[in-house]
Amino acid sequence: MRTAGVEFPDNPITHSGVSGETYGGFRPQSCPIGAPHSQHKEGSAVDRYDPLGEIDDWIMAHQEIARAYGIYIEHPSATIHWSHWQNVAPKSGHTVFFP
After folding, report:
1. What are the phi and psi torsion angles at 58 (to 5°)?
2. Half-sphere exposure at residue 45, Cβ-oriented, CA atoms within 13 angstroms
3. Which residues constitute the domain of residue 59?
4. What total of structural domains would you count in the chain?
5. Which helix (H) or strand (E) holds 73?
6. Does residue 46 contact residue 24 with C-beta atoms inside 8 Å?
7. Alpha carbon distance 75, 40 (integer Å)
8. pLDDT tens per residue, range 37-91
9. Could you report the per-residue pLDDT of 7-41, keeping only the tens digit for each?
């Protein structure tokens, strides 16, 4: 799907927009990946499949739109081939943050 000139491809492994193989979305507390109270384990984060970095590039150029929709992302340099989205502001309050 293309939105605002950005391709939102499906992950060929998950057959959805969720990145990774298993734990790109909600992670149960028993999941070995992530901190006990990560936004993934709280149900407030998803890793969006973004193999070319186009989604992150667009958000970096339009941070005011992401913030208006309550989307906060990890800095693209920390999320190669995916885009981490969460709907809870990080402690810094910045739209784009380092994990």
Report:
1. -65, -45
2. 25
3. 2-27+37-97
4. 1
5. strand 72-74
6. yes
7. 16
8. 899 999 999 999 999 999 999 999 999 999 999 999 999 999 999 999 999 999 9
9. 899 999 999 999 998 888 999 999 998 888 899 99
